[in-house]
Amino acid sequence: MGVNLRDLVTPVKVSLKALSGKTIAVDAYNALYQFLAIIRGEAGEPLMDSQGRITSHLSGLFYRTLNLLSEGVKLIYVFDGVPPSLKAAEIARRRAVKDEATQKYVEALKRGDLAEAKKYAQATSMIKDYMVDDAKRLLRLLGVPYVDAPSEGEATAAYLTQKKMADMVASQDFDSLLFGATCLIRNLTISGRRKLPNKPVYVEVEPELITLNELLTQLGLTREQLIDVAILIGTDFNPDGFEGIGPATALKLVKQYGRLENIPSLQEKLKEVDYNQIREIFLKPALPARITLEWGAVDEQGLIDFLCRERDFSVERVTNALSRYKEAQARSASSLEKWFRA
Known about the structure:
- This protein is α/β, with parallel strands linked by helices.
- Helix content is 49%, strand content 10%.
- The chain has 14 helices and nine strands.
- The strands form two sheets. A seven-stranded mixed sheet has the order 1-9-6-5-2-3-4, with helices on both faces. It has a two-stranded antiparallel sheet with strand order 7-8.
- A hairpin with a 6-residue loop joins strand 7 and strand 8.
- The chain is globular and about 65 Å long.
- The N and C termini lie far apart (51 Å).
C-alpha cells in the first residue's frame, strides 16, 4: 500500500533523456509486482515457461532495464529483507485481498468473463523465492548491481541517495521520502502509456520527480513532522491511520500542534498506536553494514541462454532488444568521441 501523500506533493515532470547519466536506486519488489500484475494474457494468466514457472517479472525486468540502460541511466536494484514486526497487519491485509481476488478470478473464468478475470488476476500477484532468484540472476547478466536490504528495501534505497551513491529512488510509493530519500522518481517506464484500472483506456504518463527538501519547504514541515502526517493518514505499520483524517487534515493538525503528542483530540487514540516505534522505523531503519556497487557489461550470450533456452523467451525478440541496446551504446560512444574532438 504505502503512505498516500499524493494530495500533498507537487511533482515535476521530466523526460527520460533528462535522466541520462543519473544513478537510480530501484525498489525491486515494487517493480516486480508491477510486472507480475500487468504482463498477463487475455484471460489474466501470467507468462510461463514450459515447466510452469512464471516469467512475467523477467520479461518486464529485462526489457525495461535494457531500455533504461540504452538511455544512459545507471540502475541499482534494492530487494526487501525481513519486514518490521509492525508490518504484520498490512501483510495479512494484502494476503486477504489476494485470496479474495483469486476466488473472484476463478469464478470469472468459470463464467467465461475474460475481462473480469483479467481484472481480478492483476490483484493476485505473489513474489516467490524462485522469482527473486531469477530476477537477481538476470540483473547479474545485465551487469546491473543489486543490494539485499536487511529490512525495508525503500529504506536502503533512500540511504543510497543520502550517501550520494544514487541520485534518486524509483518507486510508485512515497515511503522512500519518509525514509529520507533526497529525491523520488515515479512512473519510471519506457512505454509512456498506462492502462487505467478496470477500464479499456490508456493515459500518457511521464516520469515525475519529487525532491524531499522542496516538498518539506512547500509544506512547511520537517521530515519528522512529515512522518507524523503519514502516521495520521496511515502507513504500512498502521494501515488504518486515524479515522476521519485525510492528508489535508493531517497536514493542518501537525502544522498547528507540531507533533502527534500535542494534538488534543487524539490523546486516547494515540494510546492504541505505537507511533514512536513507527517513527523509529522511518528515522532509524535497519541498513546494510556495507554496500559495494559494481556495474558490468551486458552478457549477451548469457542472457540468450537463460531467457531463451531456459525460460522459453523468443530468441528473435531478445536478440532484437540486445541489438537496439548495442546501437544505442554505439551512438553514445560516437557522440562522446565527437565532443572530445570538438
